[in-house]
Design goal:
Radius of gyration: 39 Å
Helix content: 40-55%
Largest sheet: 11 strands, mixed
Shape: elongated
Length: about 1200
């Protein structure tokens, strides 16, 4: 019924036929009861929301997240029952998170709307009412006649009616669709080609019958009738959330059970100070149990970090700008910088295990240059504009030849006639321009649908056979200055199945000729004469050199044969049903019994630093798969030249299999060989046909072979096959993170299938860039993107996620422990304002800034040592082991917070001068104060790279907490119903014991963590930590290299080891100049944050070592200041004197040891020494 109503209203066509009828200019029949079909409009929509659905759709998507939905339930529970905390404590953070996320997603969608509006609002001209009418792209209707000028983008799918050329042809580039960079020729039907004015087109009455829209770019069947009238991180976060939800439920259930167990005693069930009402005495025990359970759930709900998601969203969004700002990813030649289309995948860049890359335009420049050819079984090279046989030179007796022999000229004419090359319209009259000395015209500017064709036609023009253009239905060439005109009769277009294209022309003598060129696999089997064997050998030699090869052949037709061919072509091209199949049959009938002329070899130059990039990816533990449509030999040669395959690698092949049985047998043999030769590296070559067979029945065996190979090369691949290969690895049991990189529209399916898609801003249009997550200008930028940005993003997000869980465990566990001291009465330990602001204000900024700016290793080190990428692979920092450590640490700190404060105040001790006692709110505030300081300092301990922003938000967060608490508790706020915190914070800070407790508890909490870090760095250092120790030798300042040392064992080795145990922080922002200098703030950095030092064996500056004597004045320079100090060895000196001399901290190093250290150093550079009374260095 609904469908009938829709049909009657015109919203739903009565049926969906196989064809559609389009009336040009929307001139519908005026007789009968014709109902126009309803077609889709021309609007481009890539946005996700509209003004009307943004709020409901965005809310629906946000509440699908576990944390948001959980807090919504908690908020509703707080509204429905009496809970110990106000609904505001859950509602306000939830509202903040939802609002910030909605603003971020709304902004990104607004950018998509803006991009859509630019396309939809683009001006176009259509023929209406007898003239050209300017309108917008989105207003074009099916049937409109659209005018498209030169260099304009097609606003819709179009059928060519006419052009400004006499023959009705036009040349279009389809780079944005299929990645092919140059021009394709389209010709209008003769009936409409003559309509070249707006007035004539407006009078056109015609009907087009064609197929329904389909995804195949290369298939269009139609007929015109003219009247006789003119996410890894998200999964980890969700897993951690579920674990913490289990902990929350456990605490709530345990607290509820313990409450009723405690109240089993009559004196605790209804104490004198808390008598029950009559309603409470008569209420159901089950309902009371459920109510108490929900109350405890609300009390402990802050263990789930509600602000985690919004912080992650902000980190990803803001952090993505650093990729675009990175000058190392900027390509000056094309003025292109890296761009980020999807900020949600930043951390995935640090987890890539497989890279799938296209070859042409991605690994290569997509700039073709003619190198060699084979004509009639003889190899030729171009030497100084002449075609020279191999082995000959200009100095040889036969090297200085004049003219071309018959076979050479015919071959070059075939190259100049069998193509889709066009000449720049501004140069079409230049064929009669100035002549060179050898009789060749001035160079013409060619355009072609294939860069190979362009390179071949340009090469032919240089050696004497020049294609000068198309005039009407004739192709014009000049052979050594002699003009010749060939009538173009038919063009047999290239298609991926035939892998060849042909033209039928009429020579000046009236002879009908077929010229064809294509892949050797499609030409050689159809050739019956010519030097077939020699040409095949030459093609293989070209391929081994990495050249792209084509074979050229021709055929002569008798008048009877040509008449039969013309009849068959006409019937096939006008058929409405099975047109493609019929055309394929006719083309196969025509392209047979060929006479082979020769073959060509064209080079596609490798991009800069491709080999280094692939080798770096291999060192990082990333496997590289090259997926290309090139022939087997060419692909293997390019893989060898770019370093994808090593010369010492055992190359295995799975090619040219036609049946499942042979394919399976070959796979089993390959698996056996890999097991037998497991020591050496293997590379695998697979062609498209064999791949289809392998994926059909033997997918598991094929995957086993591939995973044991260091490199895989897939050749003769169709675009959909590329996507299937990516999906195969992506969905394997190991679930590896995949990355696909390409530059053309034929790579889009592969790019979209991979976890991370990267588009190359190359010469094959922008389709790959638009459909990618990231876009870079060159393949070499991939190393910086993964090894630096990916490494940083992963470390930052991993620490951010686990730190959030840690600080919330610290936050809510004291609340749980407090219930043991208040008879599980659901009394809250913290004030509700503190509950609300803890995650929003007091502890949010330090971790956010850390997640944006942290650099635990210098970027240069990460890029120069790809092996460091292995330290973060397999989600190493977000596994259950580090998660367990952070959780246990959070519980430990929470216990220290609570019981440390309890020991201070638990024995009815007066800590105030007037003898007053602290109350429960003071106790809770003390715990909260210690907690805020500790979790903030914990973030400071995790920070390696300090900027002024880090200092501002870290210490500023602590200062802000103190200032806020003083104002909040020091003023009576009239809008608050109760003010339990009035004067509490001031009273707490007035106690010296409280200050001592705060310092002692914070140190006790962090001490264990510092010891753990020192032990792990000393006993089990990771590759990253080892790299930090060697940064000073690379010219990067690092505290790890505070003492001079070499690869051998020197006197200072023990000192270095001791210092490494204490510190290990890098900051590549300052460089100390030569001289012995130690400022007071540098000492503070040595015990707290990240100081700067330089290893004294740095090669950049060399000074002879010098040992100061006792009492000798020391001098050195720092910038433009001179530093002087006295070498002291008196005993008992500590601290600083009035002159600002620092006399020691904690570690004794005698002047003898100091002398031994300096004397063993080959160069003398500033380094820090912890000393008691051995050295005095002037501050400042």
């Amino acid at each position: 019924m609904l469908r009938w109503v829709r049909q009657q209203l015109g919203f739903d066509p009565p049926h969906q036929s196989d064809t559609r009828t389009i009336y040009i200019a929307n001139r519908f029949p005026q007789h009968g009861h014709y109902v126009p079909q309803k077609f889709a409009d021309n609007r481009i929509i890539s946005s996700k929301y509209t003004v009307w659905n943004f709020v409901p759709k965005n809310l629906f998507e946000q509440f699908r997240r576990v944390a948001n939905f959980y807090f919504l339930i908690i908020f509703l529970v707080q509204l429905m029952i009496d809970t110990p905390t106000s609904p505001i404590t859950s509602g306000l953070p939830l509202f903040f998170v939802i609002t910030v996320t909605a603003i971020k997603q709304g902004y990104e969608d607004w950018l998509r709307h803006k991009a859509d509006n630019e396309v939809n609002g683009a001006p176009v001209y259509v023929v209406r009412s007898g003239g050209l009418v300017k309108t917008r792209s989105k207003n074009i209707r099916v049937g409109d006649i659209v005018r498209v000028a030169k260099d304009e983008t097609f606003p819709v799918d179009l059928v060519l009616l006419s052009s400004d050329r006499v023959d009705g042809s036009c040349h279009v580039t389809t780079a944005s669709l299929d990645g092919e960079t140059n021009l394709k020729t389209h010709v209008a039907v003769p009936e409409t080609a003559v309509l070249q004015s707006v007035a004539n087109l407006d009078k056109l009455v015609a009907v087009i019958e064609c197929q329904q829209p389909e995804a195949d770019l290369y298939r269009f069947v139609g007929r015109i009738t003219v009247s006789q009238q003119a996410e890894e991180i998200v999964r980890s976060m969700n897993s951690f959330l579920i674990i913490y939800l289990i902990i929350l439920l456990f605490e709530a259930i345990l607290s509820t059970i313990l409450k009723y167990a405690w109240q089993a005693e009559e004196k605790w069930d209804e104490p004198w100070y808390n008598e029950k009402t009559e309603h409470e005495r008569n209420s159901s025990k089950i309902l009371r149990f459920i109510s108490d359970f929900l109350a405890f759930l609300v009390l402990y709900n802050f263990i789930i970090p509600i602000s985690l998601y919004v912080t992650v969203e902000m980190q990803k969004f803001l952090g993505s700008f650093f990729i675009g700002w990175d000058l190392d990813l900027y390509h000056e030649e094309t003025n292109q910088r890296a761009q980020v289309n999807t900020s949600d995948l930043n951390e995935e860049l640090g987890q890539v295990e497989y890279v799938f890359t296209d070859k042409t335009g991605t690994l290569t420049e997509n700039e073709m240059q003619f190198r060699e050819c084979s004509i009639n079984g003889i190899k030729y090279q171009e030497v100084n504009g002449k075609l020279t046989p191999e082995g000959f030179s200009e100095d040889s007796p036969d090297g200085n030849r004049h003219g071309l022999v018959k076979e050479e000229e015919l071959f070059l004419k075939a190259v100049c006639l069998c193509h889709t090359v066009q000449i720049n319209a501004d140069q079409t009259d230049g064929a009669d321009g100035p002549w060179h000395a050898n009789g060749i015209t001035a160079p013409l500017e060619y355009y072609a649908s294939s860069p190979d064709e362009k390179a071949l036609v340009e090469a032919a023009s240089r050696v004497g056979v020049v294609f000068t253009g198309i005039s009407g239905d004739s192709m014009e060439v000049k052979s050594l200055g002699k003009p010749e005109r060939y009538k173009l009769l038919h063009v047999l277009e290239f298609d991926p199945n035939r892998r060849r294209m042909s033209v039928i022309v009429e020579s000046p003598s009236g002879e009908k000729l077929l010229f064809t060129k294509g892949a050797e696999s499609s030409i050689l089997p159809r050739s019956k004469s010519g030097e077939i064997d020699k040409t095949r050998i030459h093609v293989d030699e070209f391929a081994l050199k990495g050249l792209r090869t084509l074979c050229v052949a021709y055929r002569r037709f008798t008048p009877e044969e040509y008449q039969e061919i013309g009849k068959r072509l006409h019937e096939a091209r006008t058929a409405l049903q099975q047109r493609e199949e019929r055309l394929a049959d006719v083309f196969n009938f025509i392209e047979r019994d060929l006479e082979l002329l020769g073959a060509t070899g064209v080079e596609d130059k490798l991009q800069e630093k491709v080999q280094e990039t692939i080798e770096a990816l291999r060192l990082a533990g990333i496997k590289v798969w090259v997926l290309t449509g090139d022939k087997h030999e060419t692909a293997v040669s390019v893989s060898l030249s770019c370093g994808h395959f090593h010369r010492t690698m055992n190359i295995l092949e799975l090619v040219q299999h036609k049946s499942d049985s042979t394919c399976a047998e070959q796979l089993r043999q390959l698996a056996k060989r890999i097991k037998e030769d497991h020591v050496i590296q293997h590379g695998l070559v697979v062609d498209g046909t064999s791949l289809s067979l392998a994926l059909r029945e033997h997918e598991k065996l094929f995957m086993e072979v591939c995973k044991n190979c260091s490199a895989v090369l897939c050749c003769r691949m169709a675009p959909l096959q590329k996507a299937k290969v990516v999906r195969l690895l992506k969905t394997s049991p190991e679930k590896p993170i995949t990355l696909a990189i390409g530059d053309g529209a034929n790579d889009v399916s592969m790019i979209q299938e991979a976890h991370v898609g990267i588009g190359i801003m190359g010469k094959e249009g922008r389709q790959a860039v638009r459909n990618s997550d990231y876009a870079i200008a060159r393949f070499k930028f991939l190393s910086k993107l993964l090894f630096v940005h990916g490494h940083f993003y992963y470390i930052r997000i991993a620490t951010l996620v686990q730190y959030f869980f840690y600080k919330n465990v610290c936050f809510i566990t004291p609340q749980f422990l407090y219930q043991f001291f208040c008879l599980f009465s659901q009394q809250t330990l913290y004030d509700s304002v503190y509950l609300t602001l803890y995650n929003i204000c007091f502890t949010s900024l330090p971790v956010l800034i850390y997640s944006l700016f942290e650099q635990h290793v210098h970027p240069h080190v990460l890029q120069s040592k790809p092996v460091l990428y292995r330290d973060i692979s397999k989600n190493a920092h977000l596994g259950y082991k580090p998660f367990l450590y952070w959780t246990i640490l959070g519980f430990f700190h929470a216990f220290v917070f609570f019981y440390g404060s309890y020991l201070l105040m638990g024995e009815d001790t007066s800590l105030l001068g007037n003898g007053q006692m602290f109350g429960n709110w003071t106790f809770g505030t003390l715990v909260f104060t210690v907690m805020v300081i500790t979790v903030t300092m914990k973030m400071a301990l995790e920070t390696h790279f300090w900027t002024w922003i880090n200092h501002f938000v870290t210490w500023g967060s602590i200062v802000f907490y103190f200032i806020f608490s003083l104002f909040y508790g020091g003023i009576i706020w009239p809008f608050l119903h109760t003010q339990d915190m009035y004067f509490v914070f001031v009273q707490l800070l007035s106690s010296g014991s409280a200050w001592f407790a705060i310092i002692l508890i914070v140190v006790a909490c962090l001490f264990i963590d510092v010891v753990k870090k020192v032990l792990y760095r000393h006993l089990q250092p990771t590759s990253t930590e080892k790299a930090q120790l060697t940064e000073a030798g690379s010219g990067i300042n690092c505290l790890d290299s505070m003492c001079c040392f070499s690869d051998g064992e020197t006197a200072c080795t023990s000192v270095r080891r001791m210092l490494e145990r204490l510190m290990g922080r890098c900051s590549p922002t300052r460089v100390n100049s030569s001289g012995l200098l130690l400022r007071r703030q540098d000492w503070l950095r040595a015990v707290g944050a990240a100081p700067w030092g330089r290893c004294c064996h740095h090669p950049a500056r060399a000074e002879p070592a010098r040992v100061p004597r006792r009492g000798e004045e020391l001098s050195g320079t720092r910038g433009d200041r001179t530093v002087r100090g006295q070498n002291r060895a008196e005993r008992g000196l500590a601290g600083t004197d009035r002159a600002g001399h620092l006399h020691g901290l904690g570690v004794l190093i005698s002047s003898v040891v100091f002398k031994e250290i300096t004397s063993n150093c080959s160069k003398f550079y500033p380094f820090y020494i912890l000393t008691t009374g051995s050295i005095a260095v002037e501050s400042g």
